[in-house]
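**Sequence with structure:**
===
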Amino acid sequence: MLTELRRQIGARLKRARQDRGLTQDQLAEAAGFHTTYIAKVEAGDRTPSLETLIRLSSIMQVSLQSVVAVVDQNPDAVVPGDDIQAEIVDYLHGCGIQEMQLIMEFIALLQRTRSL
């Protein structure tokens, strides 16, 4: 289970890094790590500390939740939409106040039409 969790966290970190157009070298330099360490974390070969996960998430401007979200291996325990929620949270981090207000208005409208 721990090996699979490390692999999932590493894959999420790699995807976030690539989505932001960063190389392993650039991320390592910004975080104060060696490139080899970043590569091993992304491959699931190293277990990063909570402090390291927070630092990397902050540098890449992604939520810690989106990086470490645990999906139980039991199919009955999987919560549908977890990945979508994490993407929404990541998106909201880059929004200004006006954009978030518009999003809230849209959500309120969806809730009203759903209850009709």
About this structure: The chain has seven helices and no strands. The mean pLDDT is 83. The chain has one domain: 2-114. The first helix runs from residue 2 to 19.
